[in-house]
Amino acid sequence: MSEEQQNPISLPRIGDKAPNFEVNTTQGPVKLEDYKGSWLVLFSHPADFTPVCTTEFVAFQEIYPELRELNTELLGLSVDSVQSHIAWVRNIEENFNTKIEFPVIADLSKEVATKYGMIHPNDSGTEASRAVFVIDDQQVIKSIIYYPLTTGRNMAEIVRLVKALQTTVKHQVSTPANWTEGDDVLVPPPASQQQAEERANDDSVEVIDWYLAKKKL
Amino acid sequence: MPCGKNETTLAPSQIELFLTAIENSGNVDQIREKVNLPVFKVRSALRELEGAGYIEEVNEEYVLTDKGMASL
Questions:
Q1: Signal peptide location in the record (chain B) (predicted)?
Q2: Which residue among A27, A28, A83 sits closest to B2, beta carbon to beta carbon?
Q3: Contact A150/A52 with Cβ under 8 angstroms?
């Protein structure tokens, strides 16, 4: 029996309280609770000084100011050391003229990567895969994305996702496929026959059918 | 751990920034406003400065210790 079969890894899921951590980063020791009150995009990458990860770090830095305007912090993670991270972010600054302003966790013990289910042995061996956890200001996991080693993430989608999640929380609405900021949103479907009848005649929303109605914010 | 350990991970300029911001005491929000840094960074830095004996927390406000005052 494999180790994983003997000790199945419990992955956090959407809606769960984000697992706590206390870690060393490129910007000093950090606890998850330090982020209370702001949203957090916690992402892992396989290794420092690797090609896809380097392009991702430049791209993450590019969206960091926009995320900060959304009260959202960025926090990277890999199973490399702080010294490796420092050397890598300095190398990125030299090669790409991009200063990495967000902290990067040195998860040498793999404690956080394991807690968050970031290691997918059949794809990434002992390294972390490309995971993204969006955690809200109450430290609840709102969304999870996984990419394999070979595929760099889409930063526009991460920003779009944060905006969509925050819109849902703020206005109690859903967002349709390909929604972007400013588009119409979806109102919750009726939960009873009576609600459905009234929804069908509700002039305050654009009713496509009783179960599908849009509105502007 | 490499060969040796610093008192904190804060750069000297960061220590000075925080100690100056705290000079007349303040809570996390007041300090954050003065140093203009993300809240996670402020909480982390205050924890480090407290651990290194530069500041102490009294009634949810941070004040400089003798070591903190001597460092300014």
A1: none
A2: A83
A3: yes
Which of A29, A38, A73 lies at the smallest CB-CB distance from B48? Answer: A29
> A21, A24, A33, A34: which to substitute to probe chain B, counting the most B Cβ within 10 Å?
A34
Inter-CA distances, A133 with A35, A100, A209, Å: 14, 19, 34
Is A130 one of the annotated binding-site residues?
Answer: yes
- Residue for token digits 């588009």? A183
Can you tell me the ipTM of this complex? 0.87
| Model confidence pLDDT, tens digit, residues A159-190 | 999 999 999 999 999 999 999 999 999 999 99
| Active site (annotated) includes residue A78 | no
Contact (CB<8Å) B40/A28? no
Tokens of B4: 């040796």
* pLDDT tens-digit readout, B16-44: 999 999 988 889 999 999 999 999 999 99
Of the candidate CATH numbers 3.30.1020.10, 3.20.20.330, 3.40.50.1980, 3.40.50.11540, the domain formed by A172-217 belongs to 3.30.1020.10
